[in-house]
Amino acid sequence: RLRVGLPPQQTLQEVFLSLRRMDIKSVVIGGGPVASLVVLCPQERKTGEGAIKLPIRIGTVEASAISTGVERPEGGRPMTHDLLVNAVAALGGKVASVRVTSVSGTTFYAQVELVAADGSHEYLDARPSDAIALAVRTGAPVYAEESVLTTAALPDFAAVEKDEQEAELAEFHQFVENLSPEDFNVPTDGNADGQA
After folding, report:
1. Residue 163 Ramachandran class (φ > 0 left, ψ -120 to 50 alpha, else beta)
2. Are 22 and 36 in contact (CB under 8 A)?
3. For residue 154, what pLDDT band results from cuts at 50, 70 and 90?
4. In terms of DSSP H, where are the helices of 58-155?
5. Model pTM?
6. In this predicted model, what pLDDT tens digit does every residue of 68-94 receive, in sequence order?
7. Which of 27, 58, 130, 179 has a CA positioned 20 to 30 A from the CA of residue 193?
């Protein structure tokens, strides 16, 4: 479905404030019973927010398309996403951003923001996997709606563990910095060599 202009009933400021810039943390290409995933992480944490990640289940073909776009192999014939990027460019447009806009159950929804040759913005509904495959080929930023993160993000346990280790190391460093020579004096019951 093609949407022209801003997403319905949202001002530019509302759109900007509700989006979080995301990075691709990993792409898992599954097979058989193992699902394929793309895992997104916010570029910046909000104050008081722990590390989070947004796993999105995608098809194996789509995971391969994202991975191929990230790796950018030389030569070869253009894949479907490459063709779409080339068509948009040939018409004088560009992919400005992609947005994961909502989630319902385990189904995620996205939009591709295109800037036309005349400078107008158009929003195309897309699957997140296709939108992200376009983003990695064009360098367009990936965003997620705050409501999607609230609903579907999970703690990034590896990052939480790293944060805890850094906090413990900082606490130990502070302890060592505050040590004084008197802290090492041990009572010896009046015996200078410490023997009883």
Report:
1. alpha
2. no
3. confident
4. 60-71, 80-90, 128-138, 146-152
5. 0.71
6. 887 766 767 788 888 899 899 999 999
7. 179
